[in-house]
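thought: user wants a sequence for this fold. calling inverse folding tool.
action: design(structure=
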């Protein structure tokens, strides 16, 4: 299999998931059974600190002699894209074991979605098998508390042409909610002096989208989000961390495909929140929002903008279990949160 990264425009087509029934399952199976590139062949990324298999590097703040108090250590794991065959089951297992074996282990895991290989354009039976695989690995390997967000590939049927499936009780996001044990598709919670907001960033496509979804909050959710964040962070005393699958802001998405070939930069609304300006305006009014954690890009980036740090984390699956994607090997990100509302992150390739 060519090691070149799969552009997300061609991802579903290459995997054979646009066909229904047995044909799609068989096509995906043949591709997934292709051996993953050996670990030794995965390139290292010189742009940011990494850590060894079991020991994370100290944060820059600690190395600089700043003795501020860390209150929470998070393993941000995202974009598993699990299926029963091929490298996926073993890869997810190895990632979870490494996360929990660190000398400085995390207190909690945040999963920001795309748990399964695909639900958007895949028949129901195949999707159910993928979810059973994901849950069985978590049940056997994960000993830490874990918080979940829904990813676009966790949404069943939005890309299928059969209108009758809309009457199925698990159509759309219901299967994901049931599989992840979530009562609501968005929610908030408090921990270690921080307030956390988990968003559902997968919205039905708009009139120009090439994909069956865009990154956006529906009006009902945004109204809830506005009230929730204002109630705890309006004074700036309580730091807020936001979790979403699709990034609110991510510069790396400009390079994920020939987005400048028209002579102008064009980043699809399915790759980054099309309502990002709405978030920007809200964050300017609320000084407590400090950190946004996302997945979706399969790349790692830490971007500071107007007092908010936007971190997108590399994918557990890398290039959908075929080595590195956009030069980023399969990885997770360790995030440290501090009492003063600051945060730092470390990209951790696993083996």
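)
observation: tool returned 351 residues.
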């Amino acid at each position: 299999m060519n090691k070149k990264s799969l552009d997300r425009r061609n991802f579903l087509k290459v995997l054979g998931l646009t066909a229904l029934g047995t044909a799609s399952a068989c096509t995906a199976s043949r591709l997934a059974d292709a051996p993953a590139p050996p670990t030794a062949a995965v390139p290292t990324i010189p742009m940011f600190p990494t850590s060894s298999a079991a020991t994370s590097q100290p944060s820059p703040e600690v190395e600089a002699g700043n003795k501020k108090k860390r209150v929470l250590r998070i393993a941000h794991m995202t974009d598993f894209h699990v299926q029963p065959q091929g490298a996926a089951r073993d890869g997810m297992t190895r990632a979870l074991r490494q996360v929990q074996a660190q000398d400085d282990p995390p207190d909690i895991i945040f999963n920001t979605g795309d748990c399964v290989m695909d639900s958007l354009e895949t028949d129901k039976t195949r999707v159910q098998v993928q979810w059973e695989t994901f849950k069985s690995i978590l049940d056997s390997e994960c000993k830490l508390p874990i918080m979940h967000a829904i990813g676009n590939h966790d949404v069943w049927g939005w890309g299928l042409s059969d209108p009758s499936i809309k009457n199925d009780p698990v159509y759309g996001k219901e299967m994901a909610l049931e599989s992840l044990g979530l009562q609501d598709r968005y929610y908030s919670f408090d921990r270690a002096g921080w307030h956390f907001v988990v968003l559902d960033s997968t919205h039905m496509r708009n009139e120009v989208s090439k994909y069956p979804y865009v990154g956006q909050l529906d009006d009902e959710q945004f109204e809830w989000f506005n009230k929730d964040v204002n109630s705890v962070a309006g004074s700036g005393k309580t730091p807020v961390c936001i979790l979403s699958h699709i990034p609110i802001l991510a510069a790396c998405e400009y390079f994920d495909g020939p987005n400048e070939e028209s002579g102008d930069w064009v980043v699809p609304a399915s790759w980054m929140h099309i309502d990002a300006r709405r978030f920007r305006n809200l964050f300017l009014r609320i000084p407590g929002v400090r950190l946004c954690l996302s997945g979706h890009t399969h790349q790692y980036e830490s971007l500071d903008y107007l007092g908010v740090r936007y971190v997108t984390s590399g994918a557990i699956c890398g290039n959908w279990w075929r080595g590195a994607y956009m030069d980023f090997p399969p990885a997770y990100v360790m995030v440290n949160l501090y009492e003063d509302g600051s945060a730092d992150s470390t990209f951790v390739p696993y083996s």
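thought: summarizing for user.
answer: Here is the designed sequence. The domain at 70-349 is CATH 3.60.21.10 (Purple Acid Phosphatase; chain A, domain 2).
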